[in-house]
Write a structure and sequence with these properties.
The chain is of the alpha/beta class. It has helices at about 15-25, 35-45, 60-70, 85-95, 110-115, 130-140, 160-170, 215-225, 240-250, 270-280, 280-285, 330-345, 360-365, 365-375; strands at about 1-5, 30-35, 50-55, 75, 95-100, 120, 145-155, 180-185, 185-190, 195-200, 205-210, 230-240, 260-265, 265-270, 290-300, 305-315, 355-360, 380-385.
């Protein structure tokens, strides 16, 4: 079988490709990207004869389809703004697929994937992705579910890449319609920095204040657990403290609206200008602590007793004590590796009930399969179960 890593020269998708080279039996692993120089660097760094480079421009639909045809699976690591274009390409090319974001542009092609008996899993990195597996692991042990609170700490620079800068601005866009919570059968729109909650992440991250974010988990978990009576689903997140302070200030001063301004006769969005600065500055491209931390809490009833399942995850530290996890790679591996795991499960036919079509993570995989594969890479899921006093 053959797999294409779309956007494979990016800092995250190259980790997907590297993991595929280490753990998969794909016969070809193509780095598909517009940037030939970066793509060649990725091929050289992985140093595996199965890894090749295919110059691909997703803005040229017909050419991208022709390049993709013949591949069995696509791991789409492109930016959020590209998901509509890339999903259209994947659908026409006739490939199974998984992407990182899962923000909804894929839904327009659900019928195409179902008709072609293809599997497309939208949103399978750490969050969304592994977070849904953690929720389902807990929910599968419960007779009924009351609440699911999903949170994460993403410890990375504000703008180590253009797609990450885009994500940062996107999630706190004041006009974004998808920032919702699920409560008593309804999706309720909330503003940026809504519903602050103190969440204790595993060391070295510790206590954090987290806010509602517009991630797919709120929608997909609410749908997956509706039959178990779930009443509340909230998804929160945080970045390094200095990033959060900056985003809060940008929100309070209206900069996140990205209003147009004129500078020396040129018109540009004010947030776009700031992102260009951050992409080229030390402050925008470095941070003091790198890595990822997930925290999921599910409450419900089992055998007539109310219980709380708390799950978190750990990984090798970024301090250089474990080779391959140094600095930024402690973040990028956490995001890129789960997409590799998902792609391999799809290729091996390990999809729940042999389903096809557009499948949210909850409907696609057995959490135990995902956790076992992550554990092989040093990424571990931990669970505690405690009764809730009456």
């Amino acid at each position: 079988m053959k797999i294409m890593c779309l956007g494979g020269a990016g800092r995250i998708c190259r980790e997907t490709a590297a993991d595929l080279a280490l753990y998969s039996d794909f016969e070809q692993i193509a780095i598909a990207d517009f940037d030939e120089k970066a793509g060649a660097q990725v091929v050289a760094a992985i140093n595996d004869p199965r890894v090749t480079f295919v110059k691909t421009d997703v803005n040229n639909h017909a050419d991208a389809v022709s390049k993709m045809r013949g591949f069995d699976v696509v791991a789409d690591g492109t930016a959020i703004s590209m998901n509509g274009k890339t999903s259209a390409i994947i659908a026409e090319a006739g490939c199974h697929a998984v992407n990182l974001n899962g923000f909804g542009d894929e839904n327009a092609f659900a019928d195409v994937f179902a008709d072609k008996k293809l599997v497309f899993v939208p949103g399978f990195g750490m969050t969304p992705g592994v977070t849904q597996m953690m929720v389902m692991s807990a929910a599968n042990q419960l007779d009924s579910v009351d609440t699911a609170r999903i949170s994460h700490g993403a410890y990375r620079p504000f703008a180590f890449s253009r797609s990450i800068a885009e994500t940062t601005a996107y999630e706190y866009d004041p006009a974004l319609p998808g920032r919702v919570v699920y409560e008593d059968g309804e999706f309720i729109q909330v503003p940026p920095f809504a519903r602050p909650l103190e969440v204790v992440l595993p060391e070295p991250y510790g206590r954090t204040t987290q806010y509602i974010i517009p991630h797919a988990e709120t929608l997909t978990v609410a749908a997956a657990l509706r039959g178990k009576g779930v009443r509340l689903v909230e998804t929160r997140g945080t970045w390094p403290p200095e990033n959060m302070r900056l985003v809060r200030a940008l929100y309070e001063y209206g900069i996140l609206r990205n209003d147009k301004i004129t500078v020396n006769g040129a018109v540009a969005g004010v947030m776009d200008c700031l992102c260009e600065y951050l992409l080229k500055s030390r402050e925008g491209t470095t941070t003091g602590l790198y890595g990822y931390a997930l925290h999921v809490e599910v409450t419900g009833e089992r055998g007539g007793c109310r219980v709380r399942h708390t799950l978190n995850h750990t990984h090798p530290r970024s301090d250089g004590s474990v080779e391959g996890w140094e600095g930024l790679r402690a973040y990028t591996r956490n995001v890129g590796v789960p997409m590799s795991v998902a792609a391999q499960l799809i290729a091996k036919g390990r999809v729940l009930e042999n389903r096809v079509g557009l499948l949210t993570p909850e409907l696609a995989f057995d959490p135990a399969d995902v956790f076992a594969e992550l554990g092989r890479r040093g990424i571990h899921i931990h669970e505690t179960i405690a009764p809730i006093p009456a």
